[in-house]
């Protein structure tokens, strides 16, 4: 589907900063203590400054794990503040995201998505909707059975 933006929205788009990280930095500079993210079910309220600190910490973690700009990282997370932070951090680190619906429950479907996307990493919730997702991942990648998660 394609929709042409009204002229005023196109002008706004031209004025926006060039990266997600730069947008977050700009928001921190303007409104450091304004609420940026609220997780109602998790009872979380973070200011732009707090959000950026969490995003930067995780982005640096990706880099510490030797991810390179353009690497694909798959996200298999529920709708949560962690999901938002992970998406922002991956963008900040220059990674490409392959977002996997939290409803995916079959090992074969997960394997297909990871193979098809060329993901070199996976961020997931160990237990989701009564599923032991760690078991699914360790079955796909037995070498991970000795890793602490």
Task: Please provide a brief summary of the model.
It is built from six helices and seven strands, in the order ααββαβαβαβββα. The protein is an alpha/beta fold.
Protein model, in words:
With 149 residues, this protein is an alpha/beta fold. It has one domain (19-146): Rossmann fold (3-Layer(aba) Sandwich), CATH 3.40.50. It has helices at 7-15, 20-30, 48-64, 81-92, 107-117, 133-140; strands at residues 35-39, 44-47, 72-76, 96-99, 121-124, 127-128, 131-132. Strands 4-3-5 form a three-stranded parallel β-sheet, with helices on both faces. It has a two-stranded antiparallel sheet with strand order 1-2. A two-stranded antiparallel ribbon has the order 6-7. Strand 1 (35-39) and strand 2 form a beta hairpin. The protein is globular and about 45 Å long. Residues 5-17 have low confidence and may be disordered.
How many structural units, i.e. domains?
A: 1
Beta-strand content estimate: 15-25%
Stretches with pLDDT under 50, minimum 5 residues:
5-17
The ordered H/E elements are: HHEEHEHEHEEEH
Distance between the termini: 40 Å
Task: Give a topology summary.
Layout: H1 7-15, H2 20-30, E1 35-39, E2 44-47, H3 48-64, E3 72-76, H4 81-92, E4 96-99, H5 107-117, E5 121-124, E6 127-128, E7 131-132, H6 133-140
Helix pairs in contact: 3-4
Key terms:
149 residues, alpha/beta, Rossmann fold, 3-stranded parallel sheet, two-stranded antiparallel ribbon, 17% strand, globular, AMP-dep_synth/lig_dom
